[in-house]
Amino acid sequence: MWGILIPMSGIDSVFRLLRPVLLLKVGVGFVFLYVGLQALIDPESWIGFVPQWVGALLPRETFLLFHSVGELVLGVLILFLSRRWLATIGIVAFLDLAAILVFYGVDDVTFRDFGLAFAALALAALAASPPETRQEVP
């Protein structure tokens, strides 16, 4: 289909300029920034995502505050850290999203976290692999 609209050689040139790590950093990083900021600005809209059992450990509002700040920090680190640390941060982001799915569950909103979790894991894998061993898409 793309070949009809744009010559395939043009598409190849565009995609060669785009770097998968950069695309994943922007996509995953901005999601963490957005969620963290929105939860700080409007905690009433987000408190429902904090499982009730968390209240037995500490107030749910306190947990949401700390988690929101953590999401903001993750977003900033994903966007601005060098590749050297990106694998570690990608794994932390994956674990954060996986924990949301495990402890909150999957619904019409959190099902997106499955894809985001694996995007964060892909970011970690790409960042950890040396350039000479990266697999090219056939």
Can you describe this structure?
This protein is 72% helix and 0% strand. It is mostly helical. It has helices spanning 2-5, 8-17, 20-41, 43-46, 60-80, 83-103, 111-128.
Q: What is the β-strand count?
A: 0
Main sheet attributes: strand count, strand direction, barrel closure: none
**Rg, Cα atoms, Å:** 18 Å
Uncertain runs:
none
Structural domain count: 1
SSE sequence, one letter per element? HHHHHHH
How much of the residues is beta strand, in percent? under 5%
Helix content: over 70%
The end-to-end distance, rounded to whole angstroms, is 18 Å
Shape summary? elongated
Mean pLDDT equals 87
Q: How many distinct helices?
A: 7
Structural class computed from helices and strand pairing: mainly alpha
Summarize the model shown:
This protein is an all-alpha fold.
Summarize the SSE layout with pairings:
Blueprint: H1 2-5, H2 8-17, H3 20-41, H4 43-46, H5 60-80, H6 83-103, H7 111-128
Helix pairs in contact: 3-5, 3-7, 6-7
